[in-house]
Specification:
GO terms for molecular function: ATP binding; UDP-N-acetylmuramoylalanine-D-glutamate ligase activity. By secondary structure, the protein is an alpha/beta fold. It is about 35% helix and about 25% strand.
């Protein structure tokens, strides 16, 4: 069997290692440059590869192709594979049959990384032998090759779900759905929503779907479509006979006839959206039969995720916050919503079809100045030019942070929450967040 892997990054190289171990004839092809550390791994494992090109004669003879999530369906080589009827799947689809481990799959437009990390923290603190993969950390396929874990917590993007055929998580979570990546879905929101719900398409009555019952897109889909999984809703406003909700400043979970309660004030993560992440993670912990004391302790000591509303430093009584992970409008909405002081907002990057109107009321209420950090800032300037007193364009992160220091006064907050992808000026959102933190430390 010939396995061709498109993309020589974390998921591609991990898949190649697993494929080789399972006896496939493996070839890795990357249209860009493969990083040196990944080349070394491929060479060490005796895996054939090429970069900065796709040689069709070496690709179109595949029995199966694993496409990295960053490569769009519209890429010419992918179209040719599909025309030839060669299955093009994701890393998760390829690796899942080779493990007996339980998987917990987490998707959503926002909150999925925090929910994934929090769920992993809960299970690990309880002493479970659990791995962490998907969009985070080490590739799922490579971990399956090493066969160390009894269960995995997987953060799954819509792109990874697009490439599944038979994969099903035992427990699925959909944190929320808001317009994102519409450039990859023909600018049709319903295509993107359907993509997220692929997480439950193969689930059976033995499996669970945990979801945000306050989310309009999720509720509508569930009214019109069926899943066989057992539904576990969570909500800030409703209560359930089975599910998780907030009542009298307590989070209450009722799952499989068992009750769990915890004061919301004791949850380490702040903000309404983080209560939702905590509810989703608690649902998993209850289904995995983790002790109540362990759940309480884990929720009260969880430190949060880097680049997500991360407090960097207070300088001259101005708080600097790194929310570089906010790559869409909905994530930035949560960030602005949680601001309690006048805010200098650093925003911009690669626009994915953003509608900034959703932020208008919050910007009027909370934002005193906007610093645009992107190659193309026209949409942001058009949206908010008449709303804030100060609007500045800058070309580097150092400039953005110095300008923010210049504009801000005692008691203000400087918030990096870009609402956009980072690929115009940075390698990725982590690079953007680190540059912000470095610039703040250098003030």
């Amino acid at each position: 069997m010939r396995l061709v892997v498109l993309g020589g990054g974390e998921s591609g190289v991990g898949t190649a290692i697993l494929g080789k171990e399972k006896g496939y004839d493996v070839f890795v092809s990357d249209f860009g440059k493969i990083k040196e550390n990944y080349k070394e791994v491929l060479i060490k494992n005796g895996i054939d590869w090429e970069d900065e090109k796709h040689t069709e004669s070496l690709i179109l003879n595949a029995d199966v192709v694993m496409k990295s999530p960053g490569i769009p369906e519209k890429a010419p080589i992918v179209k040719k594979l599909v025309e030839k009827g060669i299955p093009v799947i994701s890393e998760i689809e390829f690796a899942a049959p080779f493990t007996k481990a339980i998987t917990i799959g987490i998707t959503g437009s926002n909150g999925k990384t925090t929910t994934t990390m929090l769920t992993y923290h809960l299970l690990k603190s309880a002493g479970l032998n659990v791995g962490l993969a998907g969009n985070i950390g080490k590739s799922f396929a490579e971990q399956v090759a090493e066969d160390k874990y009894d269960s995995y917590v997987l953060e799954l993007s819509s792109f990874q779900l697009d490439g599944i055929i038979n994969y099903k998580p035992h427990i699925a979570i959909i944190t929320n759905i808001s317009p994102d990546h519409l450039d990859r879905y023909d600018y049709k929101y319903e295509n993107y929503i359907d993509s997220k719900f692929r997480i439950t398409m193969n689930q059976t009555e033995e499996d669970y779907l945990i979801y945000d019952a306050d989310d309009e897109a999720i509720s509508e889909w569930l009214q019109k479509n069926k899943t066989r999984a057992k539904l576990i809703p969570f909500s800030l406003t409703k209560t359930f006979e089975e599910g998780v909700f907030i009542k009298n400043n307590k989070m209450e979970a009722i799952i499989n006839q068992e009750e769990f309660q915890m004061e919301t004030a004791a949850i380490a993560l702040e903000g309404k959206h983080n209560f939702k992440n905590a509810m989703a993670a608690t649902s998993v912990a209850k289904l995995m039969q983790i002790r109540k004391a362990t759940i309480r302790e884990s929720l009260s000591n969880f430190q949060g995720v880097e680049h997500r509303l991360e407090k960097v430093l207070k300088i001259q009584n101005v708080q600097y916050i790194n929310d570089s992970k906010a790559t869409n409008v909905n994530a930035t909405f949560f960030a602005l919503d949680s601001m309690n002081t006048p805010t200098v907002w650093i925003v911009g990057g690669v626009d994915k079809g953003n509608d900034y109107n959703e932020l208008m009321a919050l910007v009027r209420e909370k934002v005193k100045a906007i610093i645009c950090l992107g190659v193309e800032n026209r949409k942001i300037i058009d949206a908010f030019g008449n709303v804030v007193d100060v609007m500045v364009e800058v070309g580097t992160m150092t400039e953005a942070v110095r300008m923010a220091q210049h504009i801000s006064e005692k008691g203000d907050t400087v918030l990096l929450s870009p609402a956009c992808a980072s690929f115009d000026l940075f390698e990725n959102y982590e690079d953007r967040g680190r540059q912000f933190k470095d610039a703040v430390h250098n003030l």
